[in-house]
């Protein structure tokens, strides 16, 4: 449907017909008023509350509860209304909210990986203290070792790289103990 402007005659007719209403009501044409769906707020009856209590105890989510009520009881209800009812129930000291599937879980997911909680390597010599001859890569036989830790710190790889020839050895570690990985 394309938009068409009202003619001057139509405007006078609407103004005369809706003279006791506000300007916003006058601006709406009768065609637009017919298309608008008016919905009165739904009152929570004792029977409806009983259905909600039963369905929440069966571990249904508020969205599933609304779908069930619409399908089996012809009651159109929004999930925010069910959440509001559960919040009021909790504030009144009742425990219906504990039957929700996510009642004890945090609402926001914590992003970012876990930091390495294992201890530091004892007597570790930092890369900045490496001898100058090793930095120049003039001699064969200087190896650089590194570990690659896998997801959730469950597995690890050991990489050994010879600095001049770039010969690389990669092996999977059985665990994080040096004694077991020689």
UniProtKB/TrEMBL annotation:
This is IS30 family transposase. It comes from Neisseria lisongii. The lineage of its organism: Bacteria, Pseudomonadati, Pseudomonadota, Betaproteobacteria, Neisseriales.
């Amino acid at each position: 449907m394309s938009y068409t402007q009202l003619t001057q005659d139509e405007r006078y007719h609407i103004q005369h017909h809706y003279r006791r209403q506000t300007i916003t009501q006058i601006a709406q044409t009768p065609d637009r008023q017919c298309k608008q769906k008016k919905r009165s707020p739904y009152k929570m009856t004792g029977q409806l509350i009983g259905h909600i209590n039963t369905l929440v105890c069966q571990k249904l989510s508020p969205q599933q509860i609304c779908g069930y009520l619409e399908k089996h009881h012809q009651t159109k209800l929004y999930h925010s209304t069910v959440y509001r009812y559960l919040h009021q129930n909790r504030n009144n000291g009742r425990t219906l909210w504990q039957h929700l599937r996510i009642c004890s879980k945090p609402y926001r997911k914590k992003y970012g990986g876990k930091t390495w909680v294992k201890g530091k390597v004892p007597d570790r010599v930092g890369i900045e203290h490496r001898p100058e001859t090793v930095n120049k890569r003039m001699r064969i036989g200087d190896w650089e070792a590194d570990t690659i830790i896998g997801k959730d710190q469950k597995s690890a790889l050991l990489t050994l790289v010879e600095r001049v020839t770039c010969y690389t050895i990669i092996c999977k570690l059985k665990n994080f103990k040096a004694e077991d990985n020689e």
